[in-house]
Amino acid sequence: MELFLVAYEARGLLVSVGLAVYLVYKVWVYRRLSAFKGPFSSGWSETWNSATTVSNNAHVKHKEVCDKYGPISRIGPNDLITDSMELVTHMSAARSPYTRTVWFARATRTKPGEDHLFSETNESVHTRRRQQMALGYSGKENLELEGTIDVYIGKLIHLIRSKYLSTPELAQPFDFGKKVQYLAVDVINAIGLGVPLGDLDTDSDQYRYIETTEVGFKIGKMALALGLLPVIQSPWVMRLLAPLGEDGLRFGWPLRHARARIDERLQQETETRSDMLASFVRHGLTRDQLVNESMLQLIAGSDTTSTSIRALFLYLLTHRRVYATLQAEVDAAVADGTAPPAPGVISEAGARSLPYLQACIKEGMRIRPPAGALVPKRVPDGGDTVLMDGKPVFLSGGTNIGVSMFALQLNKGIFGDDAEEFRPERWLVEKDEKKLATMHRVHELIFGYGKYQCLGKSIALMEVNKAVFELVRNFDMSLARPDKPWEEENSLGVFTQRNMLVTAIDRLGDVKS
Questions:
Q1: Domain residues for 1?
Q2: What pLDDT, on a 0 to 100 scale, did the predictor assign at position 284?
Q3: How many domains does the chain divide into?
Q4: Which of 171, 210, 244, 505 satisfies CB 3.0 to 4.6 Å to 205 for a cystine?
Q5: Which pLDDT score is estimated for 241?
Q6: Which pLDDT belongs to residue 135?
Q7: What string of DSSP letters covers 406-425?
Q8: Which helix H or strand E contains 195, and what residues bound it?
Q9: What would you report as the CA-atom Rg of the chain, rounded to the nearest whole angstrom?
């Protein structure tokens, strides 16, 4: 009691001391990264960072910071952002001492306390997991990969042709973005779990899978911005947010679906099977690891692939010269036998042999990267010195450095003064071999680099190549609402693009697809 009375009587002094300590700490925090400029208040508080994370266009705001303040800019008391190719590759190199930041990586967990490849921050565990999964993703132990993708490309073409064709007498706009996402969801479920959800067959978001994952990203975005991640990631809160109801329609359904399918497959023989799940089992993944990695596949794989296709078609349909040039190349490939007659699907090798198609895909992904998260890395203890424009720059240990992929891919110093314009020819007419090599190297960073490169890269590109070719071969498409081509939202770097209304006119006539 006496101690309480003494503290009460000295309350003014204690408050003053506490305030002084707080101010000294804030000054120290500010000065620690004061060499880097950024938005007002970014050196003192998380206000700008949090407001940007909550917004629907964080990727745009991050690019604006890089454009205004330079290749390394400040966006928070302990947070920097960069659009430097050299720094990005330095941080992610195979032997780099930089690591993933715990606060961001754990925001991507699908189960409290359990990590998948993207959320894992222990470097040795992460390296081991990549080794266990690499062959399954590469297709070397998944011999049915390309054939499976062909099946669902065919289903997409059939769905459009059977239900949504427009004619001179009647326009039938449909949500192209939604149909493309049905494709991506069915493909990733088929190759990852061995069975599709049936979105293309039913022309619907089966079990509200897409809807519930979008809700999950919104919750994660708010939790990260408001500093509530430890609360959201606690098991009892997660049970409230993601109940596994018997109706199979609530937020936890995707996890429940993956667990059930994996349990079924674990009862089957895996030594001679040639699919992704069997490969993971053969290389030592446990049941819980399989569930967590499958959730990463289903969410990250379907969203980024569908975003890539939607974004490319947004630019194709608003650049008719490019669309016509690509369509001419596609028709020539069909005529010379590079692609089989419809309803056959072009092979991956055939698609990769078409220079203009490849230029369009590169340019679409460059001008609209499929993921908009900063994915920050932590500077190793003791700090690090890097070169920027030939000058040494010291980075304090423990600092978080995120990457603005939009700023990097739209960098005028790399891609020219028209970097913000959609021009596929830039990949074909560039005469400076050194500059072209740099362009290709920067483009590759869309899929990560070094120890953090996306294992699903080859699968995503195969699907994009085939889908773009076959859609252009089969249909003449137009934006039905060019004044409002889509509604877009960025949640933790994952894009939701709704109401991309398109009309499609059949180019091939009576084709049995």
A1: 1-32
A2: 87
A3: 2
A4: 210
A5: 59
A6: 84
A7: HHHHT-HHHH-TTTTS--TT
A8: none
A9: 25
Low-confidence ranges of the chain (pLDDT < 50): 243-250
CA pair distance 68, 267, nearest whole angstrom: 57
Axis crossing angle, helix 85-92 with helix 433-444, rounded to the nearest 10:
50
232 Cβ neighbours under 8 A, 6+ residues apart: 219, 220, 223, 238, 241
The 174-175 sheet, strands edge to edge: 174-175, 501-506, 475-479
Angle at 118 between CA 456 and CA 96, to 5 degrees: 95
Q: Is residue 184 part of a domain?
A: yes
Burial of 476 (0-12, 13-18, 19+ CB in 10 A): middle
DSSP, res 324: H
Q: Spell out the alpha helix ranges (H) of 267-317.
A: 276-282, 287-296, 302-317
In whole angstroms, what separates CA 230 from the centre of its chain?
Answer: 23
What was the pLDDT predicted at 102? 85
Q: What does the pLDDT read at residue 108? A: 78
151 plus 275 within the same structural domain: yes
**Does residue 251 sit in helix, strand or coil?**
coil
- Dihedral of CA 26/88/460/316: which sign? positive
- State the virtual CA torsion across 197, 202, 208, 210 in degrees, nearest 10: 70
Strand order in the sheet with 79-82: 72-76, 79-82, 400-403, 377-378, 99-100
The beta strand positions in 242-383, using DSSP E, are 377-378
Beta-carbon count within 10 A of 272 CB = 6
Give 250's strand partners: none
Q: Which tokens belong to 261?
A: 């399918």
Distance (Å, whole) CA 346 – CA 348: 7
Question: In Å, what is the CA distance from 154 to each residue of 1, 161, 257, 471?
Answer: 79, 11, 25, 10
Residue 386 to residue 395: CA distance in whole angstroms: 8
What is the distance in angstroms between the CA of the first residue and the CA of the last residue of the chain? 84
* Helix H or strand E segment including 108: none
Nearest to 443 by CA among 328, 510, 361: 361
Structural domain includes residue 6: yes
For residue 333, the number of C-alpha atoms closer than 13 Å in the C-beta half-sphere is 29
331 inside domain: yes
C-alpha angle 375/391/436, rounded to 5°? 65
Condensed to tens digits (0 to 9), the pLDDT of residues 298-313 reads 777 788 999 999 999 9
Tell me whether residue 513 is in a domain. Answer: no
Tokens of 489: 């939202």
Consecutive H or E run containing 487: strand 487-491
Are 322 and 169 spatial neighbours (Cβ–Cβ below 8 Å)?
Answer: no
Beta partners for 391?
388
For 385, the token pair is 């010195």
Q: What is the pLDDT of residues 223-275, one digit of tens each?
A: 888 877 767 666 666 666 554 444 444 456 677 777 788 888 777 766 656 67
Does residue 22 sit in the same domain as residue 74? no
